[in-house]
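User: For my dataset I need records formatted as: sequence, then structure tokens, nothing else. Please produce one.
Assistant:
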Amino acid sequence: MRKPDWLKVPLPNSREFIEVRGLLDSLDLHSVCQEARCPNMGECFRAGTATFLILGRLCTRNCRYCNVRHGKPAPVDESEPERLAAAAKHLGLRHIVITSVTRDDLPDGGAALFARCVRLLKEEIPDCRVEVLIPDLRGNWEALERILEAGPRVLNHNVEVIPRLFSDLRPQGSYALSLELLGRAAERGGPITKSGFMIGFGEQRDEILSLLDDLSAASCSSLTIGQYLQPTAAHRPVDKFYTPEEFEGFRREALLRGFRTVVSGPLVRSSYRAAEYA
């Protein structure tokens, strides 16, 4: 399917983009912006921001919509938090987003490194806000507690797709487990709970509204909704390109269900303008 005009963005080639990419390379850090081929990469890098990808570049899961490579990951790099903090200080960041590949090979899913990153950033940049976008940790609630104890400002976990499509697109994930994780984080109190999903896989309107109901029932307070864009020919094709007006309609539906902040649009991704909306 040919992309509509509202999905066309300029190639990232600004001075700021080159500087941020160079900094990440020099510190041997990874950005999910690059790994997932995010359409907003140029805009965010131009603004001097990036979503840091920790725990390596290889994911233990193989979701049909995701461009992050899968395979057998390398051992955990224990020096990564220090390099991440150095990059955040160099960029002058005040809202820092950290995510990771899914590490089902680790007993805690990588929670210990998430917690170390959060604590170190808060020590090195006392007035910063840290947002973590975490995997489901395979239901290891002690690992979740370890991350929450570190004190992130935002705890984000994306459901990604409507429940009917999990078995096809996220066969190693669990919709019920994702909702439980969000609910547990909200019950504990502290961070803002956030989630997000994509549309364009052939879902129906009532399925999208039902997903909004489920996230609201899990006490999720912040939400992102974006258009799925096929990364390569090997990935799931796009079934539909939703219009900006349709995204605005879903934003209004989410607000009616009690979400405090909702960012909904064709180019929206989980960390898009995260500092602005946090």
